[in-house]
Structure formats: structure tokens, C-alpha cells
Amino acid sequence: MFNIVIFGAPGSGKGTQSENLIANYGLFHISTGEVLRDHIARGTELGKVAESYISKGNLIPDDLMVSILADILDNTPEAKDGVIFDGFPRTINQAKALKAMLAERNAQVDAVVGLEVEEQELITRLLKRGEESGRSDDNMETIKQRLNVYHSQTQPLHDFYVEEGCYLGIKGMGTVESIFDDIKAAIKEKCGK
Ligand code: AMP
What we know:
Layout: E1 4-8, H1 14-25, E2 28-31, H2 32-42, H3 45-54, H4 62-75, E3 83-86, H5 92-104, E4 111-116, H6 119-133, H7 140-154, H8 157-164, E5 167-171, H9 176-191
Parallel strand pairs: 1-3, 1-4, 2-3, 4-5
Helix pairs in contact: 2-3, 4-5
């Protein structure tokens, strides 16, 4: 089992580079943001709860998010060979829970691909995505809150994973192809894959 966490601020390119990672390493993709947006689109109870947080740019509570993820891992046979976790974990508590969930399955986070992008570039990309995709949380007010939340709750994961010894810092500026070349080189060097 080879598990990758793709980590970075909103707009850092996690979704785009996840697609490249899936194509290259044949991993199962779990995007917690997509899972939640799917619930919202289907109008489920969970979707209603999720929307109240997402529309304000805040995180869904850890307990709820961890139980959603555990459910996916338990009920998805394709996830057994390896997963790319996109948008999860987003807090230290979630990272600890992920570590425990994978340990129960004799597995671990093998690499954390950290996409590092300057703040102004993040805002430009998110506003552009908002125009193109119509994602309702890609508006200036919500973007600002999402970046605040990222700095206060998610960024501390950088040090957590550096200590765990699996953090691969990647400059997330430039073309999609050149960034992916850097990701592949780092995974090969650090993980031999
Ligand atoms: P994303 O598509 O990853 O940018 O996520 C969109 C929104 O979904 C976030 O701003 C959060 O409100 C929520 N969300 C996604 N993943 C998580 C998570 N791991 N923990 C808490 N909230 C999340």
C-alpha cells in the first residue's frame, strides 16, 4: 500500500496534481472537498451540515470528517492498494486520526507532497476558478476566511509531517507539467517509487 497526502493551501493545485498522481501511480483518489460537494448536490443531511461550514470558509468538525473518511476506507476495496488523500488531513487531530486508521491497516502515510505557492498567486487562481467553475466558496470573502483557516489550522501539519520524515516540499509555481516533474523526482528520491 502506497499512500500519498497532497497538501497545500486552497488554490495550490492539489486537485490538478492529484489527477497526474492518479494517472502515474494508479492510486485511489479521495478528495474530501469533492465528497462533501457531492452530498450538498444530492441534498443529503450531511450535505446540509457541510454547506453551513463550507459556505463560510470554515472546516467541517474533525469528528465528522474523520468518520466520513473511515467509512470510505472501510467500504472501498479499490483503496486497499493505496490512496491519494486530497484535502485531508486539514488539522493536527485529523493527521493523528489518519495515522491511527492506517496503522490499523498495517499502512502509513508514505509521502506528503506539499505544494508551496505564494499568497497573491493563490488568490488570483481561486478568483479565476470561481469565474470558470462557479464554485460558490471561490469568492473574495470566503477565500480570505479559507486562507485564515489554512494558516491557523492546516499549516501546522507542515511541521508535523517534517517530523514524521515524509514531507516533500514542492514549489507549486510554474507549469502543471514542470511541477509534476518535480513531484515525481521527489517521490523517486525519497520513496524509491
Ligand atoms: P476543498 O475542495 O479541499 O478546497 O474543500 C472545500 C471545503 O470543504 C473546505 O473549505 C472545508 O469547508 C471542507 N473540507 C474539505 N476537506 C475537509 C477536511 N479534511 N476537514 C474539514 N473540512 C473540510
